[in-house]
Amino acid sequence: MEQPGNLTLIIFGASGDLTFRKLIPALYSLKVQKLLPAGFSILGTGRTQFTDDEFRGKMKAGILTHPKTKNPDLHQVDGFTNQIFYLPMDSFDPGQFGDLKEKLDNINSSSDAGNNYIIYMATPPSMYEVISYNLAKNGLADKSGGVRRFIFEKPFGYDLSSARDLNSKLHEIIYEDQIYRIDHYLGKETVQNLLVTRFANGIFEPLWNRNYIHHVEITSAESIGVEQRGGYYDSAGALRDMLQNHLLQMVGLTAMEPPSSMNADSIRNEILKVFQSFQPLKETDVTSNVIRGQYTSSEIRGEFVPGYRSEKGVSPDSRTETFVAMKFFIDNWRWGGVPFYIRTGKRLPTRVTEIVIHFKKTPHHLFKRSDGISTSNQLILRIQPDEGVLLKFDMKEPGSGFKLKNVNMDFHYTSLANVRMPSAYERLLHDVMTGDQTLFSRDDEVETAWLFLEPVLKAWKVNQEIPLYGYPAGTWGPSESKKLIEGCGMEWRCPCREVAEKGEFCEL
Prior knowledge:
Largest sheet: 10 strands, mixed
Radius of gyration: 24 Å
CATH architecture of the largest domain: 2-Layer Sandwich
Helix content: 25-40%
CATH superfamily of the largest domain: Dihydrodipicolinate Reductase, domain 2
């Protein structure tokens, strides 16, 4: 990883949780790894009234509370936070951007940042356009004056129309090569290693197609509820918050063709082709191939957990989904006829994200497993929390006869000696600093993903007869989601332990 040139990072919405828990600890870690430029400063903005010193104190607490580097050195932390500044401002007020420019000029004069700026929008999407416009009006968006790169958090739009409108308005202000639509899942090592697993190993690439793969399953589960984000989440839901970006991007990397080279446009071109090959969904597909749910109150390990509608900021009659599962197909030569199953939800039994490749069974079953279960080989790429790769296959049990036992060939990134695993935000922030857009979504990717999901959003909006299933907090979602994948002996993989699901609760 190269050291980028001098610059200033401007964070809008810096008083929020994302900056405290993720961004500042990741940036400090880059500092420790000597991957920040010598002339580097951070300017946070927000409506909360902080002085520079008060904001530095809060960010120091964030580094110590959520360390990305073991045993942070307090002297080094103080040296890092001394380059952090803060400006209280209302981003909707154009007049206050003059104060922002003045503050940046003062920072530039002391840090030699060279008028190079990265702007991080840690704000609601409704503010993206107005902030970008006011920055441009004050000469802070024109890349001819130095580095000008903009990072936008998800969701990028709320549907196809809003995504197109936002892209169009941003392109009137800045160029596409200045835009970095961040998805922290793509910064995880296992997601990036998916390309290496596929394209660098002769034992996998010849099998990565409809001839040998029965189906593909992707799960992103969270054990927590909406926490303090009820107001935001009730206007978004699981489909907008997770499926449209995180899960579909993982589908794209799993299903893409080999890129012509390992540069940003080549890789993103192939992901776009996957999105363009999604078999369009009809209204009947929405009712049969898409299951949505909402968690209800439950008792988990003796502790009462409130239902979604009782969460702060959530409407008592909300029909927002906290769980969604989907079955769909990719209409191209490689994947024709192979079903893809994806699911995501809150208040599930555990926190886990994984991609599971289910290979077809052998055409003739000569042997039987001791438990009587007939399974296929599985390649499991664990994205979080324990990043690694797991291969499941059958071996002969010792002794007479030919009874089989399913065993694991298991690799964990943590088992690599003397190798440090950077956090996702470390990797992605560093990529923005060096101008690498490989792991960031392009405008046409975003719009094509929304186009695929448009029939689902429309059907949910106009057809009140489409059910929203309740599921007790701490379970794997509505029982109807199991029916989605059932058939030919298929079921969702239970990732809690390497065992099949038993009843509604996982045996954690």
